[in-house]
Structure formats: structure tokens, C-alpha cells
Specification:
Elements lengths: L1 E2 L8 E7 L3 H9 L7 E7 L5 E6 L2 E6 H4 L2 E5 L3
Antiparallel strand pairs: 1-6, 2-3, 2-6, 3-4, 4-5
């Protein structure tokens, strides 16, 4: 099982679980990062610190310390 920050550009993954707690978990759920949702990596910033994802048709940027808390499985396209 991978974490979201380790996924390469263009890959599609499915959320398995969230390891975040409290307010950060609520924020992720509000952004659509829920169990079973599909996420596509659009682009990565300098030093892979900031990554842009397509989540349910919306582009969302997460920092590495946030995306490391999302466990995912790769999907076949």
C-alpha cells in the first residue's frame, strides 16, 4: 500500500484510508478525499513539497505533510 505523496504524475489511485486526525481529517473529507474516491496526480512542485491532484473533477493542492497521511492503492486505467 502506498501513500498519496509517493504517487507519480499521471497515475490514478483510490483512497484506502486516512491517517489524519481532528481538523485535518475534517478538511480532507470536505475536499472529497474519502475512502474509495479516485485521485489523479496532475503535477508536482519544487522538491515534491506541493502536489496538485484531481479529486472528483476539482484541482486541489496538498503539501507533502498532508498527502503522506492518505493511504492509496493504484488503479488500472
Amino acid at each position: 500500500m502506498k501513500v498519496l505523496c509517493d504517487v507519480g504524475i499521471g497515475q490514478v489511485v483510490q483512497v484506502v484510508s486516512l491517517l489524519s486526525k481532528d481538523l485535518l481529517k475534517e478538511r480532507m473529507l470536505a475536499l472529497g478525499i474519502t475512502k474509495g474516491s479516485k485521485i489523479t496526480v496532475i503535477r508536482k512542485g519544487p522538491k515534491d513539497n506541493l502536489t496538485v491532484f484531481d479529486i472528483r473533477g476539482v484541482m486541489i493542492a496538498l503539501r507533502k505533510e498532508e498527502s503522506i497521511l492518505v493511504q492509496v492503492n493504484a488503479l488500472e486505467e
